[in-house]
Structures are given as C-alpha cells and as structure tokens.
Amino acid sequence: MVSISVTAAGGDESPAEESPVDDPSVEESSGGESAVDGWPAPVTGSEFDRPGAHRYAECWAREVARCGFVATSTAESQRLLLAQTVRLARAVLAEPFTPQPGYDIGRALVDAHLTEPGVLDWSVRALGEQFRAVVLPALPDATTTPRIAALAGALSAGFAGALRQRTLSQQERIAQAAWEARDRVERALRDSEARFRAVFVDAAIGIGIADVNGQVIDVNRAFADLLGYSVDELREINVAALFHRDDAAGMWELYQQLIEGKQDAVRVEKRYFRKDGSAVWTDLAVSLIRHDDGRPRFTVAMVEDITERHELQQRLRYQASHDPLTGLPNRTLFFDRLGEVFATGGPDDRVGICFLDLDGFKAVNDSLGHDLGDNLLVTVARRLADCVAGQGHLVARMGGDEFVILIDHNAGCRAVKAVADLALAAVAEPVQIGEHRLSVSASIGVVSGPLATTSVAELMKAADVTLYWAKAEGRNRWVSYDPARRAREQTRSALIAGMSAALHRGEFVVDYQPIVTLADEAICAVEALVRWRHPELGLLGPDEFIGLAEETGLIVDLGRWVLARACEAASRWHRDFPEARLVVSVNLAARQARDPAIVGTVSEVLRQTELPADLLQLELTESAVMATAGEPLPALRRLAALGVRLAIDDFGTGYSNLAYLRRLPIHNLKLAGPFVEGIRSSDRQGLVDGRIVDALVRLAHALGLTVTAEAVETLGQADQLRALGCDAAQGRYFAAPAPEGEITGWLTARARRRRDDVA
Ligand code: C2E
Ligand code: MG
Ligand code: MG
C-alpha cells in the first residue's frame, strides 16, 4: 500500500521561492525552497503544490531506501527525487504535453543506480494513486489523470530501456576485459615458450628432458655434443644407458628417489660415457617436474662438462697425497689410510706397520751430496714398493729417510715380521749410483696388534719407540714392539722427571747397614744406603734410580744430601757412643767423584756436622777411581788429605787391577758379592772363588789395605771369610740395612752390655 503523509500539507507553509529544484545539478540551499519561476503556464493556470512535492519526494526517497541498497546518501537521493517530482509536475502542467520527461526520469533513476525492482514498482504505483493528490491537488482529475498515466508508462519504458542498456554495456565491458586477459595470457605463454626455446636450444650448458621411465624426450645441442651423439640419437635413448659403471655408489639410488618423487632435485658430479666409449666428467643437476596433482612427470637434467676441472682436481689431490721425489704415498695419505683401517675395522681385526729408517743416511747425504742422496731414496722407495708389490700393503714415505709399510689385512705378528725381513733384504742389496756403489741398511720398528687395544697415535708412538730400539740395538735389524719394555722405559722417564722435586719434597731416606769386624763380630762401621719413598711406586731401592740420577747429573745433589744425612747421623752416634768409633761409609758415584766441587763439599759437610774425618769412609767403584785414560782421579789424594778413608766398592767386578792400587791412597777393599756368594758352595767353582778371595786378601794386606766382604748371607760364608783372613764383613747374615734409630738401638744395647760387663 502506497501512502504519503499529508500532515505537513497546508497553504500557509510556503517554500522558499529561489530553490532551483528543476535542476538537480544545482545545489539546494539548506532548508530552503526551490524556485519555480519562469515555468510555462499550466493548463488551468494553476501551480503545483510545492510543499506537497517535497513530501512526495521525501516519501519516494524513503521507499527507495526500503527497497534495498542505495549507493548515494539519503539527502542526495532525496534531492534527486525532488527534482524528478518537480519534473513530473511540470510535465503534467506543460503545454503541449509530452510524456518524454517520464522516459527521461526512468533513465535518471537507473543512472542514479536506483535499479532495485521495488523502485520502479513504487514509482509507477505512487504516480497513479498519490502524485496527483499530493503534488497537484488543485487540478481536476480529468485533466491530469491521462497525462500522469502516460508519464508513468514512459517512466517504465525509460527505466527498462536504461536498465537493459546498462546491462548490455556491462556485459560488453566484461567480454572486453576477458578478451584482453586471454590475449595477455596467450602473449605471455608465447613469450615464455620463446624464451624457453631460446634457453633450451641455444644454451651452452647441456639440457635434457626425460620421462620418469628414463626415456629421453628432448635434449639440446650442447647435451648432444657433450656426449658425442646427435640430438635425434639421444631422443631414442634411455638415460640408464648413459650411466657410468664406475659411478660412485648410491648414484642410481639418488636418481630412483628423484623419479619416485621423494626428491625434487639432485646435484652430483658424475661421469658419462660418450658415444666413442670415452668418459666425460660432468656437474649434473636434475630437477623433477610434477603433474598438477604432484605425480612425477619429467626430469630435466642440466649437465656441464667439468672434465678439465676434475682432472686438475685429481692432479692436485695426487700431488697433495704423494711424495714428489719418490712418487710414493706421503704421510698424509698414509694417515688417511690408517684412519680408515681404524674406522672400518671390526673388534677382532688387527693392524701392523713396519716403520723403517735408513742407517747412516745423513752421512751419505753430507759426504756424497744431496743429488746422490735423492737418488738413493728413489731406489730404496722403488725396492720397498716392489718387495711387497701385489700384496696390497701401502708403502709410504714419511719424510727424510723414513718409510712406512702399512699391513692392514688383519695380518698377524708373523706376517708383519715377514714383511720387515723382505724390506731389510730389499734395502741390503748394494745400490749403484754413478760410480758409487753404496751398501745401505735400515732399522725397522715392527708393531702389530688388535685395533681394539690401540689407536692411531699409540700405534705411531710404538712404531717410533721400536725403531729407536732397533737403532740402539745396533741397526740393520728389525725389533718388535714390547709393551713391558716400553712400560719400564716410561717408568724410567717418570722417575727421571720426578726425582729432583722428590729430593726437595723429602721423599728420600737413608738406611744404614752394619759392617762388622769378623774377629769379634762387633759393629765397626755402617754403610749409608739411600732409598726413595715414592708416593705411587712405593719404596724404591737405589738400583732403580741411582743410575738414572747419574745420567741426569742429579746424583751430585742427591749424593751431597746423602753425605750430609749420613755425617749428621754419624756425628750423633759419635757424640753418644764415642768409644764405638763408628765409621759411616758413604757411596760416591763416578760422576760425583769427578765433580770439581767434591772435595769442598766433603770438607764442608764434615765441618758442619763436626764429624771427625777418619769416621767417614767414601766408597768408589774401580771405574770411578780411574779417571780418563787410566789416570787415577785427581780428587782422590785431596780427599785422602782431608783425612777421610777411601774404599774400593764392589772390587772384582771391574778392572780388578791390584797394581794401580799401590799408587792410590786407598784404605779398604770391599769384595764384591759374587765372590762371596761363590765361596758358599763346596763344588769346584766354590773352591776357585775361595782361592781367589784368599789371594785377594793376601795381596790387599800386602798393600796395607783392609778387606771387607759384601753380601755375607750365611754362617759358613762368615766362617770361611774369617779363616781366609778377611777383616770385616757386611751382609744380611749379620744385619740388613736399617733406619738410623735401629742402629742407635744396637749401639745403646752394646754400650749397656759393656757397662754391665765392666760392672
Ligand atoms: P753397594 O754399595 O754394594 O751396597 C751394598 C748392597 O748390597 C746394598 O744394596 C745392600 O742392601 C745389599 N746387601 C746387603 N746385604 C746383602 C746380602 O746379604 N746379600 C746381598 N746379595 N746383598 C746385600 P742396595 O741398598 O740395594 O744398594 C745397591 C747399590 O746402590 C749399592 O751397592 C750402591 O752401589 C748403590 N747405592 C746405595 N746408596 C747409594 C748412595 O747413597 N749413593 C750412591 N752413589 N750409590 C748408592
Ligand atoms: Mg757400597
Ligand atoms: Mg758394594
């Protein structure tokens, strides 16, 4: 039902005269009324109702808004519809009448996008029912009704016409746009196809396309040239036929993964067979092209010839891993291979090496020149390689005149030693270089053992050590690694390294072994014997470290320390038991005896400890007494001049030359243990030793020397020595070496016994 409120209608409400409501393009002044002056006179001379026109336009705008989406604001559509209302009213009043304005108004509605179907419906119906009543109330129906009907019809026609036209033009625009778009796509496709062809055909790099079965679909010229085929020939081929039999492991699997769609791209360096059978190295990049649904469709391969680069790399790699002089693998390659043996070997596998060094090579080099030395190395290298040729062992030059043979075939000790024999024999053959005929030999360290118990570093260390042993044992031989020997040497090194600090930390102690007069078995002297309370190795006897101390020279400090402790103890005994006249006998190592400061040291110790010089005896071995060139030690007389006693220790184990003793200020001979041990037995050897001891004692006495027998262990020995006229004796039979306190204890007991005897 179309209804228009008429509440605002009234004659007294006169709208503003100047509102240009007939021209929608002219801005309406706010709240003002449109001007309607200058219109053609109405049929009846009447005017339309302007407030009514306003109300009608308002209502029209409201209905339009209710019909649906309106692109313009309410104020704008109201102004537009007021203009159309005025136009309609004027059309009704115009003379002569024409329905054309209705047509134009219909078009204007469509142009203003008021195209909802309800808009036309309302507009036409309101014209029929309400327009005349509200806008033209003063005119008779008979005059206006046909005109309004004609205008309504024209409005419908204008509306429909404009709407159709608009739809058509929109379709046209869409079609145009679609056409242009398609054109653009086709052009782009054509362009990209052209670009692709340009790239594919003319590319310097080889490009090939194959299906997922490996069947070649297309290749470019560069690809064909690379492999020495024509493009057409290659189009007939399956890529499998191009694979090289020496391709790295896994290459075919990579390709499989690609065509199965598990990978999208693969890049490898690989060899191809050319048509003529030769090989070409390529940098190959294969990409997978999929169907829209993701299934693998094609592979596109790009290949670049890198043969030259590859050969250069190979050459560089060879140079980096081979010795330029001999052509043998160098130490880098050797260690690579050894590392592989360890990395790939099982828990029960073994490894063996022969570490070889030429004997006296430096002398050859220095005397005959480096060129000849180089020639010799080349010859030795060739012989070593030849002697194990075909056995699969690696012969490498480690540097200088050092070579190594790696036996990694799980070889046992025997096999490794056999290789060492072969190597020695190969080197031993005389070498003819120019006019020189050289006899060469080598020393070899042989190491073999289970992989599980060693490492590369340990193996090489063992080889080094063993080679050193072979050299030390006289060269021209192989020596097999001995872990126990190495452990001993390591202990030795540890002792040497720790000895000096141990002396400062007070780890050394001095024991004293009683020496008795055989006649009455009374203690007449004690021998100072040093021990090392090692924090880890326990109590060490002097045989385990005195030799090392002599090697390092620490014996001078250590000997001075022992001398001072022994003289302090002897001084205390002398103070407490003066009647005992107990002599302390201190060992003097050869190196100590040769120390220029020795005389000063001894006199200084005597002075500090206030020990009478004749209560100190110094024991020197025969070799220590004899300085260079058979001349006796110059310090000997000066020591004797201090008043100290001098004894020859371990007599019978060295020169045993009594003649020189005549010229020396010696007081005492200490007979070495082995003689004393000999007289223990009653067999022939025992008899001989008995005679020797007898002769020695007589001679010593003839020279004015006393004789002390060492290492007396039994009553029989003691009796026999006494019977032979030996003066004194020392040994476990009487007493073992003991701490100072124990000696003091014996001296105390003896002094008490004597006091008791006197009492
Ligand atoms: P040495 O001077 O001949 O000392 C005697 C060695 O015989 C001592 O060995 C002693 O313990 C051992 N001995 C004692 N009674 C018996 C026995 O009944 N039978 C046997 N078979 N041996 C017995 P030790 O204490 O092991 O000393 C070994 C060597 O070390 C000494 O031989 C001496 O040459 C050297 N030595 C010990 N202390 C020193 C020192 O302070 N300085 C130097 N330079 N050498 C020392
Ligand atoms: Mg001694
Ligand atoms: Mg001795």
In helices, the fraction of residues equals: 40-55%
CATH architecture of the largest domain: Alpha-Beta Barrel
Bound molecules: ligand C2E, magnesium ion
Number of domains: 4
The name of the CATH topology of the largest domain is TIM Barrel
Number of strands: 21
- Could you give the order of strands across the largest sheet? 13-14-16-17-18-19-20-21
Flag low-confidence runs.
1-43
Please tell me how large the radius of gyration is.
Answer: 63 Å
Number of helices, counting only DSSP H or I runs of 4 residues or more? 26
SS content category: alpha/beta
Binned strand content: 15-25%
Spell out the CATH superfamily of the largest domain.
EAL domain
Pfam family, one: EAL
Organism: Plantactinospora mayteni
Protein name: GGDEF domain-containing protein
Domain PAC: 266-318
Describe the model:
The chain has 759 residues and is of the alpha/beta class. The protein has four domains: 32-170, no CATH class; 203-312, 2-Layer Sandwich (Beta-Lactamase); 324-481, Alpha-Beta Plaits (2-Layer Sandwich); 495-753, TIM Barrel. An eight-stranded mixed β-barrel has the order 13-14-16-17-18-19-20-21, surrounded by six helices. Strands 2-1-5-4-3 form a five-stranded antiparallel sheet, sandwiched between helices. The relative contact order is 0.04. Residues 1-43 have low confidence and may be disordered. The structure holds ligand C2E and magnesium ion (MG) (2 copies). Residues 513, 528-530, 541-543, 546, 559, 562, 587, 589, 619, 649-650, 673, 710-711, 713, 731-732, 737 line the site of ligand C2E. One magnesium ion binds next to loops. Residues 349-483 form the GGDEF domain. Residues 192-262 form the PAS domain.
